[in-house]
Amino acid sequence: MTETKESVCGQVPNVLASFVDTFVDYSVSGLFLPPLTASPNSPSSTSSLQTHHPVPDRLIAIGDLHGDLQKSREAFTLAGLIDGNGNWIGGSTTVVQIGDVLDRGPEELKILYFLEKLKQEAAKSGGKLITMNGNHEIMNVEGDFRFVTKKGLEEFRNWADWFTIGNQMKGLCKELEKPKDPFSGIPAVFPGIKEEFVDGFRARIAALKPNGPIASRFLSPNLTVLVVGESVFVHGGLLAEHVNYGLERINEEVRDWINGLKGRFSPSYVRGRNSLVWLRKFSDEVAKNCDCSALEHTLATIPGAKRMIMGHTIQEAGINGACNNRAIRIDVGMSKGCTNGLPEVLEITKNSEVRVLTSNSLYQKKQKPYLDAHRKDGLGLLVPEQGPKQVEVRA
Length: 395
Fold this sequence. Notes:
Protein name: Calcineurin-like phosphoesterase domain-containing protein
Organism: Punica granatum
GO molecular function: hydrolase activity
InterPro entries: Calcineurin-like_PHP, Metallo-depent_PP-like, MPP_Shelphs
Domain Calcineurin-like phosphoesterase: 58-313
Order of helices and strands: HHEEHEHEHHHHEEHHHEEEEEEEE
Distance between the termini: 56 Å
């Protein structure tokens, strides 16, 4: 018996969802994900973002990922959050990924899909995965592609091919709202861009522009500043003027901008060297160069805050602290598109114990010697000066 057009159209949403199961191993860029589940990590475009979270039993912070899916999985495995198949086993752990998923690597979309999958799985187990905006997320929504790779453009081109097919399928059905064309208004040629890159360039603009399908789906729920118990998270750094402006206000305005409600350009507090996603005042590897007085002033304006945790500036020596461990820097440049650093993650238990989980096989005695001859003079420590901090080494 031949199915009517109407009966086939009624199955389109299920057919599209089934593609997700087919591609969930990330062997391709992916097509669609199932509808977002109702969870605090997946707010609608009009709901409030949760800026303040209570102290969890276990808190994990993961630095910049920059398009390297393998290293991303290694970091989550290191913290005991996923099994060998990439499924969530972290229980009630709260995880913060501090931004910069985009640029420098070839698997940006695969990581976004991977993180979204883990968000939904974590929520079912009483856990939480919170993702944040880095400067590279802001740049890409603005159309600044200075750090995109050739393979990164190809990944977005592949995504656009599948997305277009999905829209064409939806367009056949009267029961479904006619999908918007994400390429509307995007030029077909770009001066200075080689012809071989034009399709990928157009796809990236379409996906990531304000209210673009990837931007609105994966980036708009991101936080730009976050407080979890005693820890303040931000990609670059936070100043007192930002706190005075309003942390919730910042999160919601950036969310609205990504959703296409605030014009083309991002708010000023996420642009420029003193913005939340670009600041480096607290990230210099030489601790004495950090502006500790500004840090103390900022933390004093946030009730209960003891430390600021940030990414953005690569710490070749590994995760470390400055300003009496009030500034903790967790970007270890793990992506092969950066310095190909060994994955490390930060762990904070409920009693405020802070330690580094490292994959560096040199530390077989479960100690990471922060006071060693290879460190730069004046490098900040994550430990009291009288001795090294215990860490856990996992394969």
